[in-house]
Design brief:
Helix 7 packs across helix 8 (174-192). By secondary structure, the protein is of the alpha/beta class. The chain has three domains: 4-112, Rossmann fold (3-Layer(aba) Sandwich); 116-201, 2-Layer Sandwich (Dna Ligase, domain 1); 209-259, no CATH class. The protein has nine helices and twelve strands. It has helices at 11-23, 40-44, 63-73, 89-97, 107-113, 116-125, 141-151, 174-192, 249-259, and strands spanning 4-7, 27-33, 47-52, 77-79, 101-102, 133-134, 155-159, 168-171, 197-201, 209-215, 221-233, 236-241. The strands form three sheets. The protein has a five-stranded parallel β-sheet with strand order 3-2-1-4-5.
Length: 260
């Protein structure tokens, strides 16, 4: 058990972590930008460290400054909350070099899950059902056209490093692939610094249901039921509903067991 943790976030999520840590007898360190100097999470924590000016790029996204804040205060672990540095593999690695625990996935898992091609390969290797598609290196538009024909239209072209609805194009025909493949590559490169694209079958009228997993270093793995995210606009979630009205107890157990 940790004696002191640092919360590398702000606002509501930081307050929630502080409340839970307090119940567990763990001291907390808050970090803040100048804009948040009088924020509730700063007031609630046992200690607080200033990171910098209001822009996140000059405060909450400064991984080195957060590592230094841990060393300065003696925090043994960092809880990243969500957003900011929570999915940055380099940040988790930087903490590990200083023997500071990252309360979240290990660096390798963060890197793999941030790369859709690699994550699909891992899922297939683990025997998890995946949407049919091609997850190798796509050479050019002609190669993309051949792959799409083999999979069968409609297909979805996706940037491997994409997220938030960006880097995705739907193709109902060869013409759509010819018009959209290079555009998908450019969007991936401009938005994420990575122009790799993979193609998979587009499932029409799907239900988008997510199940989150928790695992520890002792082999314990739990699934936290599901949330329905089917109501979307431009491939971005608009409403999340939990539990899903489409999932019964038997299906929930099957899906959870697959994830474990």
């Amino acid at each position: 058990m940790f004696d002191k943790i640092l919360i590398a976030n702000r606002g509501e999520i930081a307050c929630r972590v502080i409340k839970t840590a307090r119940k567990m007898g763990i001291k907390t360190v808050a970090v803040y930008s100048d804009a948040d100097a009088a924020a509730l999470h700063v007031e609630m924590a046992d200690e607080a460290v200033r990171l910098g000016p209001p822009p996140a790029a000059e405060s909450y996204l400064l991984g080195d400054a957060i590592v230094q804040a841990c060393l300065q205060t003696g925090a043994q672990a960092v809880h990243p909350g969500y957003g900011f540095l929570s999915e940055r593999e380099w940040f988790a690695s930087a903490l590990a070099k200083e023997n500071i625990a990252f309360i979240g996935p290990p660096p390798k898992a963060i890197a793999a899950m941030g790369d859709k091609i690699e994550s699909k390969k891992l899922a297939k290797a683990a025997g998890v059902n995946v949407v049919p598609g091609f997850v190798g290196e796509i050479e050019d538009t002609e190669h993309a056209v051949r792959i799409s024909a083999e999979i069968g239209y409609p297909v979805m072209m996706k940037a491997s490093a994409g997220g938030g609805g960006k880097g995705m194009r739907l193709a109902y025909s060869e013409q759509d692939v010819r018009e959209g493949f290079e555009a998908t590559k450019r969007e991936g490169l401009n938005s994420f610094g990575d122009d790799r694209v993979f193609i998979e079958k587009f499932i029409e009228n799907p239900r988008h249901i997510e199940i989150q997993l928790l695992g520890d270093q002792h082999g314990t793995i739990l699934y936290l039921n599901e949330r329905e995210c089917s109501i979307q606009r431009r491939h971005q979630k608009v409403v999340e509903e939990a539990p899903s009205p489409a999932v019964d107890a038997a299906l929930r157990e099957r899906m959870g067991a697959t994830g474990k």
